[in-house]
Fold Amino acid-[acyl-carrier-protein] ligase.
Amino acid sequence: MDVQGSFLDQLFDRGLLIETGVDGLYGRSGVFEDVIARFDALVTRYGEADGAEVMRFPPGMSRPHFEKSGYLKSFPQLAGTVHSFCGDDQGHARIIECLATGEDWTGEQKATDVVLTPAACYPLYPVIAKRGPLPPEGRLFDLQSYCFRHEPSLEPTRMQLFRMREYVRAGTPEQVVDFRESWLERGQELIKSLALPMKVDVANDPFFGRAGRMMKVNQRDQGLKFELLVPVNSEESPTACLSFNYHQNHFGQTWGIATDAGETAHTACVGFGLERVALALFRHHGLDVKTWPKPVRETLWG
């Protein structure tokens, strides 16, 4: 905690991150944002030859789509919903009274049809399904979104609101596995170009509950998820900065996405944690970007 806290304090003191009073919810300076923009552009350079269709979604998504996705079955502890006041004058008066007395006023709010996006790819799948069967070559998408996960922490790499860049492949199992294998190699080349120490390891998602423990084991045993890890908070617990995920036919079945042959489509994605990579760069190269190694600056700024 001392290491995590000291790095976070350094980021605050330098003005790279800005405190908001909520753990894991921070403002970003212009310098921090510029590093993210440069890294995001680097990701584009590595993937642009593939010809992915670019989509950008807001940080909120349809609650019915969210419910259908199955996210709540696996990760209820991370989900965030959007509530709003939908009452009358009496309800408004109760809110004002609660504010005046320091009582909880949120009981006057109701859930809207918007939930906070948990991963950049979740709004995509109903869009794919609506288009009908995939073409023979499948489809490839380039996404970016702010995402929310309710896990307040003083660990700077574990933010509650953060940006995720993703490439998502939909197609046959062969097409999807080839895509993931390609990005397992490209992802390592990309991070090496930034002179960051890293390793790739099998991983699992934070599935919830008793059934979740079995899902974690199955995910690891089948090699469905790999993470590219960079030591940011510590060498002992490196941070997942990239993830490579093979969903098999989960989203294809959930949304009725079919290949051109009429079979259930498979999907995979590679995800880039934009804030996490920026934090890794500041941790290993220093808080002043002007002093970063020349090859790293040339990679990011040209």
